[in-house]
């Protein structure tokens, strides 16, 4: 079904005939043009400011009068009520009805004002795409706007983006991109440092391996030296053992010598004395005390 909605008594219209309007788009500003009660004066220039809103069936290109209702133009209260949502003012204010449906003769419409009476800009607040059918001025409705919409062509509501918010978002995006670039630079620098540290670690690993090889060689040499020392200790032990045996034998011979000397001293000096026996054939050197004689047996 195609409907026509009339916005009357406007102060400004922000769209042109043929424009397509979508949810959240600013279309006009409420005013007090045309026949309004009370009439504006120099003392009260804003007197009578309100919005006359009416919806009829069909595609209309000119304002319709209250007298034409029902017989010529078919009003639709439910469709009219859909426009009285808070987002008519883009959620900046709420709707206050000053003259309701049929509050007076043939008034198949609503007269409204914003409750706070601060935000008078009007927004297209239907989920259907609207087409601007007519704009103009009439003695009764003053500056007016007519928009057609087809309820069979429903579209998804699109959020309103305030230019200042968009600029702020863009500024935040630029800041984030700048931070991202700084982070990327930092990452590149850290990767370079990591590569340098890896090279240092690799060089140190090579040097460590060299030291390990040297330590291995020195350990082998030390083990060999310890084995050699052990052998030398074994030899020294054997020598000490032999020295001990020789010392014992020397002490024994010394004791025997002292015993022989004692026995010899008891024998008269003019009698032969056996000094020793030759254990084997050979040449011997014999030292005699003065006055002693040598007797060789056999």
In short:
This protein is of the alpha+beta class and 298 residues long.
Walkthrough of the structure:
With 298 residues, the protein is of the alpha+beta class. It has a domain at 2-158. The protein contains two helices and nine strands; from the N terminus they run ββββαβββββα. Strands 1, 2, 3, 4, 5, 6, 7, 8 and 9 form a nine-stranded antiparallel sheet that branches. It starts with a strand and ends in a 32-residue tail after the last helix. The model has no long low-confidence stretch (mean pLDDT 88).
SSE blueprint:
Layout lengths: L1 E12 L6 E2 L4 E5 L20 E7 L19 H6 L12 E5 L10 E5 L6 E3 L4 E11 L3 E13 L8 H104 L32
Antiparallel strand pairs: 1-3, 1-4, 1-9, 2-8, 3-7, 4-6, 5-6, 8-9
Helix and strand composition category = alpha+beta
Number of helices: 2
- Write the element-wise H/E pattern from the N-terminal end onward: EEEEHEEEEEH
Q: Give the integer mean of the pLDDT values.
A: 88
How is the biggest beta sheet arranged?
9 strands, antiparallel
User: What best-fitting shape do the alpha-carbon axes yield?
Assistant: rod-shaped
Helix content: 25-40%
Oligomer: single chain
Uncertain segments: none
């Amino acid at each position: 079904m195609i409907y026509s909605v009339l916005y009357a008594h406007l102060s400004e219209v922000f769209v042109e005939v043929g424009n397509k309007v979508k949810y959240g788009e600013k279309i006009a500003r409420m005013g007090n043009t045309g026949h309004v009660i009370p009439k504006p004066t120099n003392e009260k220039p804003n007197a009578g400011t309100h919005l006359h809103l009416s919806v009829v069936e069909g595609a209309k290109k000119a304002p319709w009068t209250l007298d034409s209702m029902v017989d010529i133009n078919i009003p639709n209260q439910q469709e009219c009520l859909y426009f009285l949502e808070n987002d008519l003012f883009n959620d900046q204010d709420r709707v206050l009805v000053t003259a309701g449906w049929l509050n007076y003769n043939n008034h198949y419409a609503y007269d409204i004002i914003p409750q706070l009476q601060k935000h008078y800009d009007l927004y297209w607040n239907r989920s259907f795409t609207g087409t601007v059918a007519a704009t103009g001025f009439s003695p009764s409705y003053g500056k007016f706007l007519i928009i057609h919409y087809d309820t069979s062509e429903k579209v998804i509501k699109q959020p309103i983006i305030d230019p200042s918010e968009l600029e702020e978002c863009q500024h935040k995006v630029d800041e984030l991109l700048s931070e991202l670039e700084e982070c990327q630079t930092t990452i590149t620098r850290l990767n370079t440092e990591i590569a340098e540290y890896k090279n240092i670690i690799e060089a140190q690993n090579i040097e460590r391996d060299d030291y390990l090889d040297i330590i291995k060689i020195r350990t082998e040499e030390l083990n060999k030296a310890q084995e050699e020392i052990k052998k030398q200790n074994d030899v020294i032990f054997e020598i000490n053992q032999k020295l001990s045996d020789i010392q014992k034998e020397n002490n024994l011979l010394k004791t025997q010598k002292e015993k022989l000397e004692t026995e010899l001293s008891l024998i008269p000096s003019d009698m032969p004395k056996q000094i020793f026996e030759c254990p084997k054939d050979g040449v011997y050197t014999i030292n005699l005390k003065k006055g002693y004689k040598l007797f060789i047996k056999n």
